[in-house]
Give the backbone structure.
Amino acid sequence: MAKLWAGVTAGMTDQLADDFNSSIAFDCRMFRQDIRGSMAHAKMLGATGILAPEEAEALVQGLEGVLNDLESGALSFDLQSEDIHMFVEQELTKRLGDLGKKLHTARSRNDQVALDLRLYLREEIGAIQKLVKALMEALLEQAKAHKSTLMPGYTHLQRAQPISFGHHLLAYCMMLRRDLGRLEDTQKRMDVSPIGCCALAGTSYATDRRLEAELLGFSDIALNSLDGVSDRDFCLELLSALSILMMHLSRLAEELILWSSWEFKFVELSDVYTTGSSIMPQKRNPDMAELARGKTGRVYGDLMALLTTLKGLPLAYNKDMQEDKEAVFDAVDTVKLCLGVFAPMVRTMRAREDNMLAAARGGFINATDLADYLVKKGLPFRDAYKISGRIVARCLAGGTVLEELSLEDYRAYSPLFDKDLFEEIDIRACMEKRISEGGTSLASVEAQIRSIEEFLEK
Ligand code: ARG
């Protein structure tokens, strides 16, 4: 079939070229946004007198019909169409005859596709924000249940100092809160309408771009038509925000995987979020967490792909830009998939307080407090550090821990040691006395919980 753009050529391209050129297989998901955009365009054409009011009205009705039929399944996409924009226009013209051909007055697919993508991603960001909040709520719920559950905190994956499991989980709430901030930022800068920039230079028709933007819920319009049609910063910002979000999910995934291992057994994931092995009957594999960790790579890949596509493109529109959609769609789908499974997986996981405590007891995570004890008695920190190190070495050699040595044992290292020492190196006390703002004490954890709760209520 001859293309809608047949003119200077017969519009009869080779089938292979058609297939290569076509984007309908993936941009058809923007059909609602495309039709909504066209309705606003028809209304603007009517309001400005570029089309007669009855014509505009008939176009809107016709578009409504196409939308309803696509929604109900009465109409399906014609994969021979070049893209969703062509498909909708063709279908409209089938229904309305010559009037359908007037819809594309004073616009181009270049501003149309830029518009559709913004409308589409605006909604998807909203959906992602909801999913992030659901995960934050799941983490918060667990954090509240484990405000005082003692676990070893790690640096270099070596047991370091005692913390509460709640404190650890709240760290992820803080990350996700920043992710929401980045998504909100992306939304703000995306809130600019490109429609009316037309092919690249604007138009000689007396259009009303601000009316059209308002009808579509934008707070501003792109002020330079070349920029309006060639800007994909909003896609890149979204992909960056999603990459960082996935990096956070991947870190959480990694911890869940480690914690589920027999070497740790700090948590047990619910049976419905683990899988078995086809040959090893004892296995409960944390596949969901592993997949999320793995899928992080694809989202980074999507960001890199689009950055690379856009690099070096001259102004304004170039067909290369058709590659933008698969990258953002893939990233959006992947992030939604991961967030969707993480919230219930976190909510239903069981913390093994017994194993956390056992690990906390055997790890000398009170060694800093032992040194601090001597400092409080007047010894310079460096000396206190050395003495404490020697005591730890002795415990290691004797297969014991700091809490088990006697006061005499301690006195052999320094006369500053007294009975009050044991209070100071009790691991629970060590956790509780870290009262600095943002620390692991109960009061600080509760303050963090309140802060996240207030944020989520807004
Ligand atoms: N399918 C195209 C895309 O996704 C729409 C814009 C095409 N514009 C053009 N002049 N060929 O980018």
Summary: The pocket of arginine is lined by residues 23, 27, 83, 109-110, 113, 317, 319, 321-322 (CB under 6 Å). The chain is about 60% helix and 5% strand. Residues 193 and 403 are 66 Å apart (CA to CA).
